[in-house]
Amino acid sequence: MGIMSEYIKKGMSAHDLEAELLKLIKQYNKKMNTYLIVYASAICKPSIPDISLNMDDYYTIFDLLRSVDSNNLDFYIETPGGSGEAAEEIVRCLRSKFDYVNFVVSGEAKSAGTIVVLSGNEILMTQSGSLGPIDAQMRIGRSTISAYDYMEWIKNKHALANKEGRLNPFDATMIAQISPGELGGVEHSLNFAKDLVVNWLAEYKFKDWNQKETTGVEVTEELKLERAQEIASELINHGKWRSHGRSLKIKDLEEIGLKIKKIDGDPILADIVYRIQIIIKMLFNSTGTYKIFATGDEKLFRNATPMNNPPQIPQAVIGNAEVADAQINCPRCGTVHQLYAKFVHNSKVDSDFIRKGFKPFPKNNKLLCQCGFEMDLNGVKNQLETQIQ
Asked: Could you count the other beta carbons within 10 Å of the beta carbon of residue 255?
């Protein structure tokens, strides 16, 4: 029986899944003698803009780890990517506090997530885990394109102009629209990720690489930088990978010179990590949660609640309202839930709204749909309380 089938058969609620996640993190800590933090984004919910790695994530991670008393940190990460600047801040935070930082990848850690992972002393991956290319993506007109491809196109046109003495009218028109500032911005975007990766690989990943395994030759700082340059150049080469979303598995990473610790070689560790991955997936699929930050001590979930309309409070009684209503859409099955919240003790309010087909606002701020999807209504409650105060 698969892990997900096992949990589904148990009929675990969202609360049960959250408790299981914290239990698994503690098991991981005991097994590895370290302190694990889980950071995961719902890649399955691309319509939510906030799923990308951003500065808010940095501040949350900083807060969760600020009082942790440990020299070692393991960092479980799932992200589609995001801000390179936020990635840099997260790594600075981790490196200022912990002597050894290892990254655990069992899902996807793409783009800026890959940049973060490459700052680790060790990279631990399961067979299902993947990193991705780190070529910067930038907005040109109405399209998002690879900065690497953009620079390669310009270089090719420059070489063609030198060879033939001219460009065809179409290419000439395109080139004429590129300003020096834009060109410089593209170059900086491309080099930003590469510089971070080169420096971090040489300083952290290759920290204990003192001699070559095959020849026994001493590894100098110059050799570490040279190897880091080679790896970074491979990862930004969009021409090699063809797609920014390409999944780079253990074999791909080893072929470009990265040493990966294979989690599947340790059955006990693999079971813990795969269970963490499945619990995260089940929470994303059965609740409005789109980001998870968790340690063995605490957890913080970010939730999105879809509504047909904002809570309705008549303008004339805002600040002195007795009741408000809201329509909540279940994102899984589409069922519309009509809720009411009352702010005074009045039994007539209950009878009137129940007669209209409304249900009272849940006391625990959790709305469980008949399809099994659980919605967090804390945001709706906060909005209501703000309006009536």
From this structure: 10
